[in-house]
Input
Amino acid sequence: MKFSTVIDRDEDGMWVVECPAIPGCVSQGRTREEAMENIKKAIALCLEVRAERGMPLTFETSQVEVAV
Output
């Protein structure tokens, strides 16, 4: 499966990655590469827990640009 992720740098310099299609699925890393590897593990674990609990695996999301 493929998932879209959002990656940002926090005020401490850590890379934070979120998978919007899976509520609460967030990870981080000292480098961008480490953060991306960590989110792969987090996604797998989140999907496993959601399946065990009979919850929907994902939610539909979409990216929409907003001009200000």
Q: What stands out?
A: DSSP finds one helix and three strands in the chain. Strands lie at 6-9, 15-18, 26-29. The CA atoms of residues 14 and 47 lie 24 Å apart. The chain has one domain: 1-68.
